Amino acid sequence: MMDSGYRTEVLSRIRNALREVLTEPRTIPAGNATSEVVDKLGTFVTEFKKVDGEVLMAKSHSEVADYLVEIINLHKITKVAFSDSDVLEGIRLESELGRRLPEPVKMLRVDRTQKKGDLVPLLGDVGLGITSCQFAIADTGTLVLTGERERNRLLSLLPPIHVVVLYPHQVLGSLTEVLAVDSERLDQTITLVTGPSRTADIELTLTKGVHGPREIHAIFLESAARD
Questions:
Q1: pLDDT tens profile 163-202
Q2: What is the DSSP string of the chain?
Q3: Is the terminal CB of the chain with fewer CB neighbours within 10 Å at N or C?
Q4: How confident is the model at residue 150, as a pLDDT?
């Protein structure tokens, strides 16, 4: 069992790793997380930040929507697309965003019946893609998207900004742990996302966003996130 002093140190390290995006401090949802989850989440946040990812610890559905609206306003985004994942449905993302977005911003719900060939032109001018994921890997700050949970994974590849919404208990320690998951829970089609897209030319000049999103954000929900 983690002693209180060490737990305080862990929580402090996590808080220091986060960028303050909203006006009030963001803290890890430790009230409903075990010490093991806290440790893995702390490692994930540290590694995710190293690869230029941004993190929000959300205590409510409203905080998720407020964070997304800040991104939309900051980048002057006019079209947002989101998946039909159970996580996004559970936080009523469409209605929460709909109440906050100005009239010109369009929202597109991408469901698992839509074909890839139809989606490519639809997503061509989307500025923000929002998905969930199946797991996150603490050791490398990697997000794991699967064909079963996110059948239209183009949302994680085509828009210049990708936001993933997930729960702390979805963080596993390593890729080995992910691959050891019971086959009924792990889909055969897996996409591993570690930070924004990076491309280097012959002179090793690094550019973000050439072959994928230039920004990636992870929003963690408390297990009992309230309205």
A1: 999 999 999 999 999 888 866 666 667 888 888 755 545 5
A2: ---HHHHHHHHHHHHHHS---SSS-----GGG--HHHHHHHHHHHHHHHHTT-EEEEEEEHHHHHHHHHHHHHHTT--EEEEE--HHHHHTTHHHHHHTTS-TT-EEEEE-TTS-HHHHHHHTTT-SEEEE--SEEETTTTEEEEETTT-S-GGGGTSSSEEEEEE-GGGEES-HHHHHTS-TTTS-S-EEEE-SS-EEE-TT--EEESSSS-SEEEEEEEEEEEE-
A3: N
A4: 62
- Report CA-CA distances (Å) from 33 to 42, 66, 110: 12, 24, 31
Binned at pLDDT 50, 70 and 90, residue 146 comes out as: confident
CA distance 125 to 166: 25
Structural domains of the chain ordered from first start: 4-226 (3.40.50.10420)
14 versus 120: the higher-pLDDT residue is 120
